[in-house]
Amino acid sequence: MKYFIILISLGLLGVATTLTTQMIVQAKENQEMKTDLAEINHARYGLMNADEWRDQVTLIMSKKILEMDLAPENRVELQHSLENIMYSLLDDLEIIIKERTSGQFSSMKRMIAGMVLDVNQLRDSVPSYAAKVLDELNKPETKKGIQTYLTDKLGNLSMETYSLDSMRPFLEVLAKYDTDNKIACREYLEAEVEQRSKAINQKVLMILGAVLLIFLLNTLTPYSRGWPRALTLMFASLCLLIGGVTTPMIDLEAMIDLLRFQLIGEEIRFADNIIFFQSKSISDLVEILIRDGSIEMIFVGVLVFTFSIIFPTLKLISSLLWSLGNERLNSNKIIRFFVFKSGKWSMADVMVVAIFMAYIGFNGIVGNQMDMLSRSSDAVEIFTTNGTKLLGGFYLFLSFVVSSLVLSEILSRKSK
Description:
Blueprint: H1 2-40, H2 50-66, H3 72-100, H4 106-116, H5 119-137, H6 140-159, H7 168-176, H8 182-220, H9 227-246, E1 250-263, E2 266-280, H10 282-292, H11 295-323, H12 327-330, H13 333-341, H14 343-346, H15 348-374, E3 381-386, E4 389-390, H16 392-415
Antiparallel strand pairs: 1-2, 1-3, 1-4
Helix pairs in contact: 1-7, 1-8, 1-9, 2-6, 3-5, 8-9, 8-16, 9-11, 9-16, 10-11, 11-13, 11-16, 15-16
């Protein structure tokens, strides 16, 4: 029975190790795809991009130009406006004639001007002139010419409107997935991310299940004693540690799913605009802090690396050496420190609590701001999404903390 339990434990350990390796690879690929998806969906290429506004406004204006027509209900109002313009022009003309016919022989000049141009007669003819202008504007050939002119003018103005933001990162993502279409690339990435996320979650559950069975077999059965048990438990905990520090722990995402409003009777809409996205693991965080270059950030990075990776690893190695039963090793102060006293100094449990509290805080802040944005205006319809969530890396690291405590208790009892 003893060897049977050892064989089962080793088999479960092999399963957990294989699944952890596969999960780490898939998590890294999924993290990269999520980042690429967030890049092409970023608001700077949509809602905050002048090119997107230009394209939508130009399309609406082109449609309105093609639909341009003189409706009967508008004719009376338009004719009245044209008459007022003509009357105003005649008033200006009359003032100019008076100015130019003043001075010496003013009476004769005005008589001659009146013979050439009768302003009062022109005033009487203004309504008929306005009607003829409207009739001319309503002719198909005239309307087509105006539409052509307005369309060309709109095209010139559109060419003068462009975004100053660099599109290079966006184009690099499209080229990476061999497409020149944003929608096609987004659909592909969304499908891949969803599929890989499900596979990763399944592997995380299987890893946790395998490790749990290993601990149950090696703590509750009377046959599970000696260094094989400690060795198996330590390698099982190591799987959790490696998976926890190398895979993303939390996704922070704020997205405007849909923004739409009416512009001259037509809908302006922007969909799937990412405002903020981050998906990082502990190892990613350490790398970012150290690459920052400032003394403060390097110091924080070293602290995170020490207390989340170095201390737990040394604890497992020391536990392995202590379980071998060598008196010289067991009496070593450093080994005894990491086996029995490093728990309160490793701060792994503190980090788990910090990450969980950060998740609650970010989730609350992002959710509150997205909700306020959604209720900002009745004229503009906005739908927002708070995509902040804990990932498999967090649960693996949390499980490592628990398994480490259990392992310390087992070794402590053995020592007594």
